Structures
1.
Amino acid sequence: MTPHLAAGLEVTRDEGRRRALDELSDPVYGSQEPTLIERLRAWFMELLESLADLGGGVLSGQWYLVALLVLVAVLVVWLIVYLRPSRSRARGVPVHEGRPLSAADHRSAADAHEAAGAYAEAVAERLRAISVDLEDRAVVTPRAGRTATELAAEAAVVLPDEATALRDGAAVFNDVAYGDREATADSTRVMRELDERLRAARPAPAEEAHP
């Protein structure tokens, strides 16, 4: 290869830095959090400088492509880790997605979904019926954004005999909501039986509920 052609394929350190900054200014990166951009930019610039040092002060176009591919791979891995279900699990899925209906309306919806074989929807509506019913009976205080796990924990304080059943019901809801388990007819039966148990349950005496 002639010297002038080789020079055309080489990218100086300053040119590599400029291309890296242009690449990172692309809108696909701008949609991330500012702090993430700064971290990625610092990491990428350090990578470019390290490669430049290894290449005797001149970064070839091939090494630049390798570095860019590494950056994209890191971004993909980060997005997978950041968006994985465990992060959603930590925050929890609210029981109510919109304005709650009456407990009777949620039960009717649950029955209709169950009859139609829409078991995931039936599980969700049954837990919403349970949630509204517990709020109406002052077992738990009405609160927007409550998750199934929080509902079970709060209700168990007043209904300690139903603590295990409440946790089991929350687990069914969470498994379906997070996609860890496909809802089945058995899932809807568990939730229906939980609803019936809780409707018949009565709060424990104050000294028993709050030892």
2.
Amino acid sequence: MSLICPSVLSADFSKLGAEVEDVLNGGADWIHYDVMDGRFVPNISIGIPVLKSLSKAVKAFYDVHLMIEEPHRYIAGFAKAGADMISFHVEAEEDCSGTLDLIHSYGIKAGIVVKPNTPAEEVFPYLDKTDMVLVMTVEPGFGGQKYMADMCPKIRAIRDEAKRIGKEDLLIEVDGGIASDTVGFTAAAGANVFVAGSSVFGKKDRAAAIESIRNAADAALVQ
């Protein structure tokens, strides 16, 4: 089953709670929460205080994507602020295994992320510990970028390795340029969680946008 995860990076921050409620009412499964520090990526977004306020105001599954240096230093803060899943970049952490354990110690799900130029094999050693692998289909740091179709072989390689080791339930998330006309390629390659930014928040009818993306993903998964 496809999970649709709108990214608040594309929401109107002047009314963030209402925006999140709107996409949840429109059928969103999760809410994607992008954290940028201006060091690991060349942009700064939102952090722990905003998540704490948002999670109290609006009940949802908060999928927190840390695009930051030394992510282990901030796991406790985000976990206590309401994160249900915390994902961090393999490129930003020396002890990925330890950080996955740390996230799990707070009773939440843990994910690991790969940038476009990072080979799939970099995450293979951690598949037995991780709940999800996020494959970036754009360079991380800014919303609204064009989808990179050449990431599909990476998705397929991760899915095949997960099957090989008996990790059939591994979630594979994709983030970047995902819309109804691109999501099918990633779903056919093995992805099942889809982050959508402007293709949801940028639409007048968010429910219709979510349904369109889900239908395209599910059709590809069936094939």
3.
Amino acid sequence: MSSRLSEIFKDEKLVNRIKTKLPYLFQLAELESSRAGKIGMEVGSLRERILIALLIYKFGEANVEIRAITEPEVDVWLFGNPISIKTITGKSLGGVKLIWTVDAQKAAEFRRYYVPSCDILLVRINWGGLGGFYYIPLEAQRKLLEEIGRERYIKLPKPGTNPRGVEISKEALNALVDDGLSDYIEIRWEKKEIDYNAYKRWVEYWGED
């Protein structure tokens, strides 16, 4: 499985496409999910679709499967193997969620029993600066968890706060992307002038016979 996802990073033409097209497509996703200048939560789903479309473009629709999700980590299957898709925004790596929960007991229980179950495709968005597109194989995740332990690998929300979930710690995430098994494409996140109208295509549909 690991070798199939790593093919993306060895395909020079595709790497160049990712560098040029991903910022543009993610900017479109932000425009499409914005209301009164504020980006809505649905932007995450749009980004996920963009990355799944990349997998379909590279590997073919027959090899990319979206099933009913029964595992919290899994977003898509490639050649029958599960993949987790994660996107974050910021100047540094951090804030990658493993599970969304506001229940402190569930969070603690999750850390006690968590074992990585799939490869990760991660995008770090950093508008006006450098970010990246990362592939973190399952093998690297399990190896690091064994090496540093759950307390250092998993970050629980602080008590008394309004948490949004359990995260991979910054220490763990930086170690994972630096692992020799992982792959990385550096991306410069520059916005373009886009003439975008959220209603145009829907108006055109209304006008069709």
4.
Amino acid sequence: MILIDLTGGEQHPAYQKFEIENGARQYDFLRSAVEAAIALERPFLSQTILKALNFHAIACLHTSAGEFRPCKVYVGEYEPPPEFQVQGLMDDFVNQVNRHWVEQDALALASYVLWRLNFIHPFINGNGRTARAACLFVLCVKLGGWLPGAPILPELIRRNRAEYITIMKETDASLKEGKIDLTKLHEFLSSLLNEQLASAGEDAS
């Protein structure tokens, strides 16, 4: 059962209901993955985790859930790298993250994960949901535990979509100048993370 084929579009109520429920399942899996990585003392990012995050996001909604895309995709005016480059780019991406895991600031590393996954766009659908979840995975594992508060960071990013898209476009543009500038994305995530953590204090009061 692939709902995008059965419903004819993402606006169908059945598709949207399933998408929301997939999101809840993805967050449950994300928390389990964070807790397992910490308990087993395996603080690193893997393609297995990324593929699983994507699977939970788009299972039964689109084909190739949890697999790297077999075709080109387009995101508005942006054309991600061709499909035959995805595996190599993802190999390099995961290696870069893990190479800098120890010395990098948690938010700096999470910012890079969020931007780079969206830039490569390795999946046929659900790339944004996967990147946001991966961003939180890195933050939580780096900081030693599931971060308290709600809404959690991926939801806060989604709620601030307009600002987020503007910052991502500016970040993409900086790459054309020879070096990626993640400053604004870092500041954006820092502000939203503070909002999440502050909500935990409000709930306790």
